[in-house]
Amino acid sequence: EGAVVFENVGFAYDPRNPALKNISFSIPKGKTVALVGPSGGGKSTILRLLFRFYDVGSGRILIDGQDIRLVKQESLRRNIGVVPQDTVLFNDTIFYNIHYGNIKASEDDVYKAAKAAQIHDRIKTFPDDYQTRVGERGLRLSGGEKQRVAIARTILKDPAIILLDEATSALDTTTERQIQHALANITKDRTTLVIAHRLSTIINADLILCIKDGQVAEQGTHDELIQNT
Ligand code: ADP
Ligand code: ADP
Predict the structure, then answer these.
(1) ipTM > 0.85?
(2) How many angstroms separate the alpha carbon of residue 151 from the centre of ligand 1?
(3) Are 89 and 149 in contact (CB under 8 A)?
(4) Ligand 1 pocket by C-beta < 6 Å: which residues?
(5) Model-level pTM greater than 0.90?
């Protein structure tokens, strides 16, 4: 599960200036794919269309061979997990924040997800207010740590596809790399992972799509793209 195909997809926020121009590409299931390229190229728009935040203007998007417009919204949302650029957390424990939205998950599963996202040491603390349930003083979570909480929540949900939008992320490169590594390791060949990134510094993507001016300018593995330049 989790194969994604864009077939001649067009989309415009403004009809005079289409954001995606008949774009076509395939993402094999279970692979890690990086969308890179200049700001405004269309990376975030691709993620928004995949999640059906907007519907395509023309063409179609297939997941496992099925047009996503014909899939029930709740089934699509169950199959796709989104790790946003800026994670807003509840003013409650990290445990609560990970468990939220996955109420059937056991306490043990929450701990495992937290461990996988490397945020388990903060599980009893609150994100922002220096407080914990037991009254200890904790440290305020950094942007990268908040994103780890979002990753843990997504891991717990266990969707077939995970979208990670770092297109305009303010995280430092080291933190970004750690987060990408963590996610890629967890998802292995089981989950399709699509990462939108402003730089081409993605290291362990199986496929890199360079999105420029609403089209695929180049695609290939990291080594193939380096040989072409
Ligand atoms: P990237 O993620 O590669 O930076 P985007 O998908 O955000 O690119 O943007 C593609 C194009 O669509 C750009 O020209 C951008 O200005 C425009 N755009 C993106 N979001 C919106 C929006 N909500 N309303 C209008 N135009 C938008
Ligand atoms: P992102 O990578 O999240 O798309 P952007 O900088 O492209 O970041 O856009 C941030 C927000 O600003 C978008 O969610 C969109 O709503 C809005 N936006 C971006 N470009 C335009 C645009 N050309 N016209 C109107 N709104 C825009």
Answers:
(1) no
(2) 24
(3) yes
(4) 13, 19, 39-45, 167, 196
(5) no
